[in-house]
Model the fold of this input.
Amino acid sequence: MKVLIVDDSAVMRLMVKKIVKAAGFDAEFVEAEDGIQGLEKIESESPGLVLCDWNMPNMTGIELLEKLREVGISVNFGFVTTEASEAMRTRAREAGAKFLVSKPFTEESMRSALQPYF
Done:
């Protein structure tokens, strides 16, 4: 499955790739540095799953998700972020996010979140 990782930190994108692989998922990865690039990659690459940070410059993760839903794109979308308040979890769910994995994440927390989508 093609997985798009959207995060402004190259180190974090690498960590997410490593933990997804370690959790046992066979994925082809595409990367984007912010929501604007993420939107472009979703349109050009058609990933099966998007793993997105919440706080990024130019377009945040929640803005990206809301834009996707506004234009009718229903890709499986989850957050991998330090933001984990109940208000943010609620906003993410209401916008259509399938899950929210809090940083620091573990192999097991990632496996649990991603299993339904592989």
About this structure: Residues 53 and 63 are 11 Å apart (CA to CA). The chain has one domain: 2-117.
